[in-house]
Amino acid sequence: MQTRFVIPSRKRPFDCLFAESLIPEATIVVHESEFKEYKEVLSTDKNLYTHKLDNIARIRQWILDEFKEECIVFVDDDLKFAQCHVGEKVRKITDENAIKQIIMNAAQIAKDLDISLFGFTRRPAPMHFKPFDPFEFCKSLVAGTWGIIGRKYRFDSNLTTREDIDISMQSLLEDRIMFIDTRFYFQHGNLVTRGEGGNQGVRTHKSEIKDMNIIANKWGKLVDLQKKKKKTTGCTIHVNRRQYNG
Q: Helix H segments across 67-162?
């Protein structure tokens, strides 16, 4: 299966440099106004592509339209390491070959199941890992490091954030399941809600309300957006499904 790893990045060249060290073959996608800055920081510019877009949903869709590989793996630019929850002790993984193999194993399982989306647990605490039930199919969302096979779904360009929620719900509606491997957690630090870059500077209170309304209107009671902290919103999905009848 032809696969391309893509790191969409914004105003985080040095964080992106570290993420690139974990996935050296990754294609890095930035706004054209930041090309020079990234070129000066990254080890090479041969895999550096530019766009003219203004939000992450449109950027992700541009990536799906621009690149022709069957599988696209999205990696957030603040990736720090992978974490394995199997065994007596949590193991930190920084070896590039091991990280690639973890991702490709999940991609192959999704391919064999004939579904579009795959990802990993969003819970960093190992206490949440259930060794007797290591995979989730409808309880979690794709985020951070995840992949999409084929072009069955499109990102909602009206969303400034929460495009991962919407694409996950599309998958649950049509494919009925996603493949989430809870044995592994990909640590992306705290830049999602702190610091600069990424969606910071793009996300505003007005856009937050707009995005929440879009999600609420599209998915109703199946998605519960809850205010967790001052600047973040938690999401719970209510799709109870244990078996796949493909």
A: 96-113
d(CA 130, CA 138): 16
Per-residue pLDDT of 57-104, as tens digits, reads 999 999 999 999 999 999 999 999 999 999 889 999 999 999 999 999
The domain 3-203: what is its CATH number? Answer: 3.90.550
Selection from 83, 97, 98, 81 nearest residue 19 by Cα: 81
What's the helix, strand, coil split of the chain in %, to 5? 35, 25, 40
Q: CA torsion sign, 229 to 30 to 72 to 160?
A: positive
Q: What is the pTM of this model?
A: 0.89
Euclidean distance between CA atoms 226 and 242, whole angstroms? 25
Phi–psi pair at 197, nearest 5 degrees: 90, -175
The total of other beta-carbon atoms located within 10 Å of residue 162's CB is: 24
Would you kindly state where each structural domain of the chain is located, as residue ranges? 3-203
Any idea which residue has 């999704």 for tokens?
110
The two most distant CA atoms of the chain are separated, in Å, by 51
Percent of all residues in the chain with a pLDDT value above 70, rounded to a whole number: 89
| Residue 239, token pair as written in the block | 């799709």
Q: Is the pLDDT of residue 231 over 60?
A: no
β-sheet bridge partners, residue 81? 187
Is pLDDT of 176 > 60? yes
